Amino acid sequence: MTTAAELQTVLTVPARFRGPEGSANGGWIAGTVSEALHGARHDSAVEVTLHAPTPLDTELSLRHLANTTTLTDGERLLVEAITVTEEFDVPAFVPFNEAARAEGGFAGLVEHAFPGCFACGMRDPGDGLRIFPGPVSGTGLIAAGWRVPMTVTDEDGAVPDAIVWAALDCPTGWAHFQPGEFALLGRLTARLHRRIYPGGTYSVVARASGREGRKLFGESAIYETDGTLVAAAKAVWIAPA
Fold first, then answer.
1. Which SUPFAM superfamilies is this protein grouped with (predicted)?
2. From CA 121, how far away is CA 234, in angstroms rounded?
3. 3-state secondary structure of 232
4. CA 163, 168, 171: angle at the middle one, nearest 5?
5. What is the pLDDT of residues 186-213, one digit of tens each?
6. Over the stretch 8-17, which tens digit does the pLDDT of each residue have?
C-alpha cells in the first residue's frame, strides 16, 4: 500500500543499459535511482547500494519516501539510495591526450568478462560509452579519454545523471581487474559538480583504494580538459567467491 507521503512510479530498464548480460549496468541504475531521489539538484552526494542485480525489460517499482529511494521487483529489494555527507579523495587529473593513450593498455581488450557492458564494453560507437581505462605509467592510476556520444542527451541537451554515474562506475573496478577478471558493483557513492555535454571530451580517471576479503574498493573522477572536476565517486565491488 502506498501512503500519502510516498511517491511510487514504474521503471523499466532498456536492454541498451545492460552491464552483465541480463541485468542493468550498476552505475546506470545507481544514477537513475539517485536522480529519482535528488531530482536535478547536485548539492550533496548520494550513496546507492545494489542489493541484487536489476533485471532488464521488467516493470519495477521505484519508491521515494523522505530521504530514501528504493527500487524493487515485487517484494525483492534491488537498489536503495540515500543522501550522505561525503568527502571524496579524488584521483588526480590526467590530461585528455594522456588518458586517451592509456586506453591501449585496457585489460578488457585482452579478455572482457562483460563485453556487452554499456559503459566499458565493446559496443558500437554511439551505442555504448566505450570507456576503456588503461594504466597511466608511474602514477598508480588508470584513465580513459571519454568522447561523449551525441546519442546520450536529455531534454536540456546535457547528459543525464545516469550516464555520468555509468562512466564513474566501471573504471573503479578496472583499477583492480586483470584480463578476464570481474566483480559486481555493491555500492557506489557519487557527487556531480557540473553538467556533461554530448560531443565533449573528458578524462575519466580511477584508482584502486584497497581490498578486504571479497570487497574491492575504488575511486574515480571525471575532469574537463582544463582539469576542472566534473564528478567524483567511490565504489565497493564484490568479487566472486
1. Thioesterase/thiol ester dehydrase-isomerase
2. 21
3. strand
4. 125
5. 999 999 999 999 999 999 999 999 999 9
6. 899 999 999 9
